[in-house]
Amino acid sequence: MEGLRWEALRPGGLRFAYGRGQFPPGLDSFLLASLPKLKAGMKVCDLGCGTGLLGLLLLQREGALTVTGLEIQPEAVRLGERAVLENHLSGRLTFRLEDLRETALPAGSFDLAVCNPPYFPPSSGPPPKGEARRTARTEESCTLEEVCRAAARLLRWGGSFCLVHKPERLADLVCALRESGLEPKRLRFVCVRPERAPSLILMEARRGGRPGLRAEPPLALENADGSPTAELNRIYFREEAPL
Asked: Could you read off the pLDDT of 158-167 as tens digits, one per residue?
């Protein structure tokens, strides 16, 4: 692919690729990867996985996972499969060129589902340029409700669904989760500094979970002097302390 770039998640760590016309690696994927409570042997499904960055981030945190990515863009899948070869992850990270709404994966076959979904309805302002960017950021090809239904179908009873979204869509997100049989359990706001309004939300829901949502302390990105917080440095693998 023209303009293909490779980067490492950390010195000597897993490498990922992205090309022209696609979104470069974003803060939201790194933040989302820090949310799930990972355990060795977990089976993970990444809904709308793009080139597989989120799966690589999870595998960088816990290498004994099996991650399956679903994606409808052929070029993104090709890049993801190149990353599998580059990182010697055959059998641990796989991709399926499928619409997540119509996947043939067996129901109830995953412990964890993750998704960095489109944030905006199709009619909410000028769409991003390029098909790949529109698919990634607007609900033209898949709505929030459809993402939640897909996650609920693929998760085992008691399995978790983790995703990142915008604060202004919080009510929509909670409604979509509950309508799909996924109970919101953990909520964390992300803000530049504690005194600022949040710019993102991180949510964990559980299939068949009991009602009861725990709001965790906000995740701040900057200290008062503008430097990254210790937590953000850990999320970006700049420090060795565990998340």
From this structure: 999 999 999 9
